[in-house]
Amino acid sequence: MRALLCGKGYMHSKMILPAVLLLTAACAEIPSTPGESFQAPLQGTAQASAQRAAQPLDSAPESEPQIAAPVGPAALPRVASAAPRKAAPHAPSAAHPADTPVDPVTASAADNGPPKNVWTRIRGGFAMAPLDNDLVHEWENWYANRPDYVARMIDRSSRFLYHIVEEVEKRKMPMEVALLPMIESAYNPVAYSRSHASGIWQFIPSTGKDFGLRQNWWYDGRRDIIAATDAALDYLQKLYGLFGDWQLALASYNWGEGAVARAMERNRAKGLPTDYESLTMPAETRGYIPKLVAVKNIISNPARYGLQIADVPNEPYFETVTLKQHIDLKVAAKFADMQLDEFKFLNPGHNKPVIKAGEAERIVLPRHKVLTFLSNFEKHDKPLVSWQAVTFKAGEKAEKVAALHGMTLAELKQLNGLASQRKLVVGQPLLVPLKAGAETPQFPDLPVNPVPLTRAIQAAKLNAHTRRLQPGHGGKIVVQKAAQRGAVRTAKGKRAPAQPLRAERGKQVKVKISAPKPASGRKAPVAGTKQKVASR
């Protein structure tokens, strides 16, 4: 085993592999497939998820790669595992006063050591102030009438919950926070909103960068479960520090801390209370916490709503291994004896079919697959990658570039997510097959691709008919030539210039986008596709 770890370019500690063997032997059988059934009701244990492997994800982005985010405390050829910890006792709270009847399951777990079910830990850690209003009841009914949706959401969360519960508990945060991805993304690691929020915690690009989530051509930390969870909890702790109230902190997570602070200031000026229920806010934010409370109530007592919640073992589902070489996703999945979709589900941060070493050294694997991966990696004596990146140069013809790499132009565009783009742009990076005999594949550091124009216009149409650019905020709207055919015009009806349109200090620029008005009447928002009013 020492040769395995030293000969292939990754690190390991002599002390860790024996621990991995013991943990693997002790590990309960946990489903490793990322599927979900749109038909099967909630029942049984988490093992039922294996029967749902072939189904698509809810709210999966059409233009984002179909992959999901990593989750779990461990490190590769340096393998790290998270041993179950005894849950810390929780003091009585407003939500669970001392005279509240005790859940016999929770009481039994307290008497007999750590609970076997992670839901027991979650229920015992609820600490937010209670909320009971019509919006809560509406959301309770919404979920209760969609048992298949709830089943898929619970199935996806089963891979990630232990890790998130551990992190929430370490920070002494209320366990309602562990349920937040259920209302943000339905625990879909590739959920992508029209406001370009991504991942289970739905970070927009700018806020993701503010909290250390790297985003480039190869990798998007917003979809990396481990990285995004750390960032989201950092952000929530910051918000709680600003307001000293979890309802206001969560409202800020949705609406933005500046917006909540201004709403509170308006109420103070009028002599009104400044608690969450007293503030004037957008409809989405008004329903945000009731939606979370509805999910909390369902998790607390699913039978009351005619639902059954699959058990989630109170133990780590995954481990991570650290690799210092580029490797194809297919090759890595094969080493772990996993279906490619399953591997992508656990490793959604990678934008391309190859993992670039140095971008995210961690590869997330089910605990019982780690030794299989290491063994197959040691035996492998062929190239680990079959792709490389090239840059489209001035004077090149797209068809010839595709043909040079044994592809049609349509295949080249499809591979690079450019099917809707009419022409390739000079300087645009392209992923192409690695030529046979090539000594060193090219994996340059590349920035994230700009949002395609068609998606930018779509987002603007959906969010509003008129968007205003406020002066003095450094904002700009990039108007490309391809969009000038009547799509974007200035306030006076003239065609917008090709160069970026900036707000001059002391003035306001209005950009109108021609689009039919959306149909009246609003359905209950579905996670991952809802309107975003916050700067998250």
Describe this structure in words.
With 536 residues, this protein is mainly alpha-helical. It contains 19 helices and 12 strands. Strands 1-2-5 form a 3-stranded antiparallel β-sheet. Strands 8-12-10 form a 3-stranded antiparallel β-sheet. It is globular and about 70 Å long. Mean pLDDT is 74; it is low at 1-76, 82-110 and 464-535.
Distance between the termini: 45 Å
Give the count of helical stretches.
Answer: 19
Which range does the strand content fall in?
5-15%
Low-confidence stretches: 1-76, 82-110, 464-535
Biggest sheet layout: 3 strands, antiparallel
Assembly of the depicted chains? single chain
| Proportion of residues in helical segments | 25-40%
Q: Specify the structural class.
A: mainly alpha
Number of strands: 12
| Shape category | globular
The radius of gyration over CA amounts to 25 Å
Which strands sit side by side, in order, in the main sheet?
A: 1-2-5
Average of the residue pLDDT scores: 74
Architecture blueprint of SSEs:
Elements (H helix, E strand, L loop, with lengths): L1 H6 L8 H11 L52 E2 L23 H8 L6 H7 L9 H11 L2 H11 L3 H10 L9 H5 L20 H6 L14 H19 L2 H10 L1 H13 L13 H18 L17 E5 L4 E2 H7 L4 H7 L7 E2 L6 E5 L3 H10 L7 E5 L6 H7 L4 H7 L13 E5 L19 H11 L2 E4 L6 E2 L10 E3 L10 E2 L6 E5 L23
Antiparallel strand pairs: 1-2, 2-5, 3-4, 6-7, 8-12, 9-11, 10-12
